[in-house]
Each structure stands twice: as C-alpha cells, then as structure tokens.
Amino acid sequence: KAGVTQTPRYLIKTRGQQVTLSCSPISGHRSVSWYQQTPGQGLQFLFEYFSETQRNKGNFPGRFSGRQFSNSRSEMNVSTLELGDSALYLCASSLTLEGTDTQYFGPGTRLTVL
Amino acid sequence: AQSVSQHNHHVILSEAASLELGCNYSYGGTVNLFWYVQYPGQHLQLLLKYFSGDPLVKGIKGFEAEFIKSKFSFNLRKPSVQWSDTAEYFCAVNRRGGGNKLTFGTGTQLKVEL
C-alpha cells in the first residue's frame, strides 16, 4: 500500500507570494491533517479535514487555509507569505475521525520563504 | 487547551543502556496518548499508543510506555537501546472525541553511541 505522498517536496518563495501544497492520503483514508514543523515551535496542528469538511482548526492566521476533495486528497494554501512561514509542512492521514486511529505522516514539504 | 511537556531535550546513551523519556500532559478531560519517532531522513512514525485498558502498552522495536493517570504522565521506556534507536522522539495527545488533532511535545533527540 502506498504511503502518504506530498508534493512538492521543496519550495522556495519570496515574501508576499502565495503557495499551495498537496497531500494524497493512503488509499481508503478519509481524514487528512496538516502540521507545521519548525525548530522554534516544534510540531503544530494546522487543520483537519474529513469528508471534504474542515473538522478541526489550529491557532494559525487566516492566511493559512485548506480544502479536501471528494477523493480525500487535500491541499493547503498560504497567502501573503512571511519569513516566519518557512517550515516543514507535514500531512497525515487516518481512516476515520476516531482519535484512536493511527495517523500516517508523509515526508513533508520544505517551504523556504526569502 | 491541552499541552505536552517533554523534559529531556537531548539524551546521549551508550548501546545497551536503558532508556526512559518523560512525558507529561495537561488536560482536564480524557485523552489518547501517543509516542512518535522520527529517524534521520525518515517520516514520523507511530511507536505506540494508549487509549484504554492496560496502562502498560508495548510498541514496535521493543519500546513500551506506561500511562499513570494520577501523574498525567506517559513515559517511554526501552530496557536496552541500540545504535539504530538514534532518532527524535515525540510525545503527543489528543482529546477523546476531538478528532485526530494532535498536540505534540517539543521532542527529545536521542543519540546512541557505540
């Protein structure tokens, strides 16, 4: 079974630009969560989608948004990029919304904002 | 809101030494508890999880963790570490019934020396 895939793996953008990251969950998984990982703040939850609906949201500004498609693939968008948005963005998928499910993480997209 | 504390940020051990990594969480309700590991150059992966039943849970690669409700703790243990256990270890919790949103600790970087 293929794991969680994320594209692109690396991105370099400049301040003020916007970026879209993509995540394909494990086949059959309907929940997709996004996390931001930085050396200073560690791993922080961004949002969770299930059946094309946002079910949970973390404490990030409105510049961070996401969506989920009918095939469970998910995208997240960051508008008006700031230097502090430089991070590794991780996507995780799980079968259901049951918090006891194992979440499987992808390799991440490394975003650098110059 | 829940929070997770990992007391040891960097740990260096010799092969065959015993390991215990501390994790405490702060939340007034019922939680599910997890330990994730990130080996160099690899994805985050689940080591073990606890949501009910026997508070001593066993995971992959000989790891175990004990949930002590009165202490809000979920410490990770391994009797004898190997060089291949060199990795970063993350404790995480989510709120029972709150979806898959994980709150992570800051991580413990473990280095095992030959």
Characterize the structure shown.
- The complex is a heterodimer of chains A (114) and B (114).
- Chain A is an all-beta fold.
- Chain A is built from no helices and eleven strands.
- In chain A, strands 2, 4, 5, 6, 9, 10 and 11 form a seven-stranded mixed beta sheet that branches. In chain A, strands 1-3-8-7 form a four-stranded antiparallel beta sheet, with no helix packed on it.
- The N and C termini of chain A lie far apart (37 Å).
- The model of chain A has no long low-confidence stretch (mean pLDDT 96).
- Chain B is globular and about 45 Å long.
- Chain B is an all-beta fold and 114 residues long.
- The chains are: A mainly beta (114), B mainly beta (114).
- The interface between A and B is medium-sized, with 29 and 24 residues.
Supply the helix-strand structural class of chain A. Answer: mainly beta
By DSSP, the count of extended strands of chain B is 12
The total count of strands of chain A amounts to 11
Taking pLDDT < 50 over at least 5 consecutive residues as the criterion, the unreliable ranges of chain B are none
Order of helices and strands of chain B: EEEEEEEEEEEE
Oligomer: heterodimer
Mean pLDDT of chain B: 95
Q: What is this structure, in a nutshell?
A:
The complex is a heterodimer of chains A (114) and B (114). With 114 residues, chain A is mostly beta strands. Chain A is built from no helices and eleven strands.
Give a topology summary:
The complex is a heterodimer of chains A (114) and B (114).
Chain A: E1 5-7, E2 10-13, E3 19-24, E4 31-38, E5 42-50, E6 53-57, E7 64-68, E8 74-78, E9 87-94, E10 104-105, E11 109-113
Parallel strand pairs in A: 2-11
Antiparallel strand pairs in A: 1-3, 3-8, 4-5, 4-9, 5-6, 7-8, 9-10, 9-11
Chain B: E1 3-5, E2 10-14, E3 19-21, E4 24-26, E5 31-38, E6 44-50, E7 56-58, E8 64-68, E9 73-78, E10 87-95, E11 103-104, E12 108-113
